[in-house]
Design a protein that fits this description.
Blueprint: E1 23-29, H1 33-43, E2 53-60, H2 67-70, E3 78-84, H3 89-99, E4 104-109, E5 112-114, H4 118-124, E6 132-140, H5 149-165, E7 181-185, H6 186-192, H7 203-213, E8 217-228, H8 235-255, H9 267-270, H10 276-284, H11 290-305, H12 309-332, H13 335-349, H14 351-373, H15 380-389, H16 391-407, H17 411-425, E9 427-429, E10 434-435, E11 440-441, E12 447-449, E13 454-455, E14 460-461, E15 466-468, E16 477-478, E17 483-484, E18 489-491, E19 495-496, E20 501-502, E21 507-508, E22 516-519, E23 524-527
Helix pairs in contact: 5-12, 8-12, 10-12, 11-12, 13-14, 14-15, 14-16, 16-17
Amino acid sequence: MNAASGAPGAVVPPRPEASRPRLSVVVATYNRADLIQRLLHQLARQTLPPSDFEVVVVDDGSREPVAPILDKLSLPYTLRVETQANAGAAAARHRGVLAARGDIVLITDDDMQVAEDFLARHLARHPQGSRNVVLGGIRPDPAISDMPLFERWYAWLNNRIAASMSGPKRRAHGWQLFTGNVSFRRADYVAAGGFDKSLGQSEDIELGVRLEKAGCRFEFCAAAHVLHGSDHTSYEKWLKRAHRYGVFDSRVADKHPDVPQVDPWRFLFEMNPLARPLLAAAVLAPEASRPLTEAVMGAARRADEAGYAKLAFMGTSVTYAMEYLRGARAEAGSLTEAARHVARFALTSGGPGQVRRLVQALQEDALEATRSEHHGHAGPKAVASMVLTSDGYRVLALQRLREAARGLGIPLGNHALRVAQTALLGVEIGKDVQLGTGVYFVHSLGTVIGGDAKIGNRVRFYGNNTVGTAKDDGYPTIEDDVWVGAGARILGPITIGARSRIGANAVVLQDVPPDSVAVGIPARIFPRRDVDGQ
């Protein structure tokens, strides 16, 4: 046996100390000494030089502490082990991120397996100056085929989630963040406040929502994948996990009522209509409907045995959703309160909610654009004139109609409105662009805003502008109250700081700090001298 195996008396050479690693890998572990050792040995075979990364393991109160075991391993990279009393995965990961010294942090689980280029692929998605959050793929360990149906269902679900984020016209979002395979800037994590340690589940999606709201760009990288096995074989524990997710997703929805994708009651509207009566039964009579849940799972198992995998997984999805909604009902506290939550979701995210948001957005846009155009004055006559005569406002109105069409699931309506927006008003705005309120197109002709660019509030475009990508590496974020001069080009995954001014015909390829002026080709950046007089 050698030093890496932890043999008694083996001589372990001192580990290197990376004073400033580019990347920190954070892994929380609990009672999985064998699995964490397997992962650490796989990280020792990375193509990324060992001096470029470190690994921080946080032992969340394992019955047998892992520090003495891991101290015996011979590894080429810096390994640090933090130990704490059992406080849950969120607290353990948070401690690991705070202890990390790399600018980029990668979080994975102790039961994952990784390829030799895993770290290099993640790091490549974080170019200098970017604020990316990279979600890596999760592929099933081949051994998962021997696991019970409810565990194999997770692999099927992960494939569906990956498909929803893959492709040139699809993008990842904060509510899809999962801690099994994710990397981000440590500074963004700290600025967002880190994991909410009060959440016993769902702390990952809640963090993702806050990071996206803070301006981080989410992207999915299937190639930076992990292999996920499982040591869960208890059906009862699987149901308990579903119940807990219903409880804690309810709390996440209360924190973020503006993000319908995290609301547990969405299942009542999104799942197959044939399944909805079963879900309603779980909410109306949580205990009395349990035999129905067992009958659905029994049918799923029989379908699995007969080789009808898709039917088996669909039945498992219904089983999970029924128990999940029991958790949401338990968190609501009563049927009356649960009904109130269902109504809130329907009014804010269904058809009535889309219409109400459309009207509100059109009103806010008119007021903000009028204030911007008239230096703060937004009387009724000025607003009416803006609505009736301004092509710039018409661009914005069509954009809000496009957003409503997407929300109502009318893709052809969105496409038709985009064609009209381009043909009639000369502005081309991509499907995934996020436009703030009061954005104003002073001269609309020739302006293109592409990809998933993010445009803040009261941004002004003076015509023939391009907001796009330079090397197909990402799209810009333009913060509030920026003016973009005629003919200016803003390219790449850069940020234009609030209240900045982009000169006419400037080509901007780097971040612009707030209250700055960018002029020239390529743009040179200077501080504004008139900030106090704005």
